[in-house]
Amino acid sequence: MILPIYIYGHPALRKVAQDIDPENYPNLKKLIANMFETMYAAEGVGLAGPQVGLEDRIFVVDLSPIADEKHPEFKDFKKAFINAHIIERRGEVEAVEEGCLSIPGIHEKVPREDEIHIRYIDENLQPHDETYSGYMARVIQHEYDHIDGVLFTDKISPLRKRMVKGKLADMEKGKVACEYKIRTVK
Fold first, then answer.
1. Which of 13, 23, 95, 171 is deepest in the core (most CB within 10 A)?
2. Which residues are identified as catalytic?
3. CATH number at residue 147
4. Are 143 and 96 in contact (CB under 8 A)?
């Protein structure tokens, strides 16, 4: 089932998500399947619980649609992250352009560390303690920010924030056009 994606300005995007009890979470596998289906319908590579109105510490990532000869490691990178906690961010900080399904039409350079150490539980309730780098680390950090109530626009330069202020204000007023199912404040 395709879920509506909450758009910039909706209070759900600013709430810090809480850990869940994955063993007793009702229909967890169905939720994860719905999140992937929603993400694919919107042509994204990641989607977090708050983006579909949940206060749960869960996000999904699938980089296989952008796998190519240069990045064959993306081919099988489809994961659900439950109760994720980044233990450490390290490495060189680089600003790379990002977009977000909750902030349609805006793409900005966002500074992020090149490597992360993260602990999480997968959809099969298996614990993981892993390190990611490069684009994988960037996408994970972007989705992780969502479960902490942080949006990529919070991390851009003050000048760029002023330049997108009008578009963000329109989104807060419900003035947004998308090709996918959305939920606005208004």
1. 171
2. 143
3. 3.90.45.10
4. no
Q: Which residues contact 68 (CB under 8 A, 6 or more apart)?
A: 74
Q: Which pTM does this prediction carry?
A: 0.96
pLDDT digits (tens, 9 = 90+) for 75-107: 999 999 999 999 999 999 999 999 999 999 999
What gap in Å lies between CA 181 and CA 35, rounded to an integer?
Answer: 13
Judge residue 17's burial from the number of C-beta atoms within 10 Å of its C-beta, 0-12 exposed, 13-18 middle, 19 or more buried: buried
Name residue 178's amino acid.
C
Token pair for 63: 């980089």
Angstrom distance (rounded) from CA 22 to CA 100: 26
- Which amino acid, 135? Y
Structural domain for 86, as ranges: 5-183
Residue 37's φ and ψ, nearest 5 degrees, are -60, -40
| DSSP β-bridge partners for residue 60 | 47, 80
Q: How many domains does the chain have?
A: 1
- What's 112-135 look like in SS3? EEEEEEEEEECCCCCEEEEEEEHH
